[in-house]
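Milestone M4 deliverable, item 7.
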Amino acid sequence: MTLKEEIDKWLKEIGIDQLEPYDTGEIRWAINAGKELLAMDPAKIDETIIILSNYRLTLAYKMGSCFARVKTLESIGPRELLLEQRAKLNIIKPWHDAIEAKIAALKKIHDRKSREDYATSSRR
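Output delivered:
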């Protein structure tokens, strides 16, 4: 069994082969959502967090693949391919981190809105 076959089998075992990229415009909206989130209800913020979390999962998978290619190419590969994979890794890592930061900010907004909603409903 070749290394590619072994890896494909392993990906299937752990379920990564189930990961499907989707392009319905939801990711574009969630990434570009800004100050309008402050006026949204918590359910819409939940939706945004879920969309971005799924996108972060995809990015993490692609980042791991790039990292594995870099490590492989460091030992056996041509220099041009190694430089290409390092460039991809250097692009995807900050993007992944930025998505994580946006999710953390959305969670804070959600928590604050939930507390405000709870406080106003308990005063009634």
